Predict the structure.
Amino acid sequence: MPLISPASRLLALVAVGVFSLSLSACAAPPATEEKLPAAESAAATPEPTAEPTPTAEDINGRWCPTAESPATEPCVTIALPNATRDDGFVIDIAQHGSPAETEDGGFSFSTVDAPFGTYYPAGTEIAGGTPDYYPGTDLPDADRVWNGQSGTMLVRVATPEITAATCADVTAGEALAAWGGELAAAPNGTWDLKDEMGWADETYDACATLSWIVVPLTGCCLGGYPYEVMLFHKGEFVQTATEEVYGRAPEITRISEDEIEIIRSWVPDGGSGAGPYESAASTFTWDEGTEAVVREGDLPPYSF
């Protein structure tokens, strides 16, 4: 057998190594565990959102008295430090520093010489309930302001949400409570926003393009008393019929879905309250283009 030189042996070993490396490169990679997307963890139950802690500033907003409250009490709009009644009277209800928190969870507000009332958020009961001299009961499911001195309970008023599906359920009483604060103070009295005469439901229609509510004074009515006319589009308050306030009850007729006529009368110079009267007619039309009410016609020469 021929002898193999050391150099030849070295070359052979190198060749074998290279061949082995080539086979390793061509071989399929070893199986590895397929990495699957991490399994979604079970949906964690969200932590319940904590209700915000009531504060004295939550009293801001619009409030109206319950039916059991004294008839002379008007609705009020509160923007601390003031409370503005619908008769135009403004009360500073924070004249004694920060309102005091009561032991039963309310916030007590005072004026200069009398209590304004205690604000109770919904869910907070009046300790001991309402007294016997108040013909109603506590309303713990509603935000309210209770004045034990006058026996008045004010309840927060929310602007009604009016849609095509809900408009038929919105009442004139809700509209008066929500938008009565938009009226200027009544001359010689207070506007009847409780609809003591029962007129409002006959003319207010939250589904109509244009509807109205005649608002007399509380304790209505004498011929020369002032009357206000509120105009509504799809149930939402738009404006009063005129900037001026006129006496004598207006005669209002619907002409079409989006137009009404208002006739105002007055006693002419030298006349008497028994008549005859002079009158002026105006039409009021909802203009879809400008989204406003357009008036055409005449107005009385006299206003309050």
Notes: Helices lie at 6-26, 172-179, 200-203. Residues 167-297 form one domain.
